[in-house]
Amino acid sequence: MNQISQTALPQPPLINSGAFMGAIYMICAGLSFALVNLATQYLTMSLGVTSPVVAFGQYFAALLFSLPWLLKVGIRAARTNATGKHLLRVIFAVLGVQAWVAGLAHVPIWQGIALIMTSPFFVTLGAHLILKEKIGIHRLAATILGFVGGMIILAPWSDSFSFYALWPVVAAIFWAGTSLLTKTLTGNEAPEAVTLYLLLFMTPFNGLLAVGSGFAMPGMDAIAIIGLSGFFVLLSQWLIARAYSSADAAYVQPFDHVKLPFNVAAGWIAFGFAPVGQFWLGALLIVAASLYILHRETRLYRGPTGAAAAAI
Question: Per the confidence metrics, is the pTM higher than 0.85?
């Protein structure tokens, strides 16, 4: 009888766990956003399109790409009882996008991404204070480690620090609020519906900001790039919603740091933006933080409900 009680029950594969898939979704979102950032910087720096126009065009295109899903499932599938949360999430997202695009118009991709990676620190703190998620010492340490890596890359103490570099920090704060609201919404609504409402409400807001800044119709080449990047905006937002619907916000946030090497590679290939020496140390800390949390999840995994994640 003792032998039976001590026999471990067979566990399902880790790949079937919500925590594992949440990490994969977040990493894929980072890769998709790297393509969006590459297009954004090319549009603003090389083609001279203003940042509000780029933001409006990308999210308008993303909304158009989402219409086939809406036509397939019908209006009823997109109904919501949390309109207020959706609107607040959109306000945070709009302000974050505008600040981010403004930053990319002046700073290299690798520096902007290093700054935006302060967002997971705010998300993890907010997840504990607002969502009442349990944050173990390992999650907290990984988040702080990634934050330190970002600061090493940024080097705010150096003479080359630019005022424009503050825009990504502003975006990080607003996007932290967006992430927390995304987590609360995906608890009751489908990720597709959460993504649709973001695009539906963001497009008019971005349109008003584009008109207010002096809207000018971009050329055909720019329109084509905006349209293509709009598809990846849609894909990125859907992947993020899937990540938050699969696992705790505090758990998936460290995997957002993995987007750094994707963006650095894109900036180096397209624009020749070579990171400074301290980048490599910072990048090592960021990637190590994400891999450590994944390693902990693999060891502590107990079943498809992800119960072990609470101990991380």
Answer: no
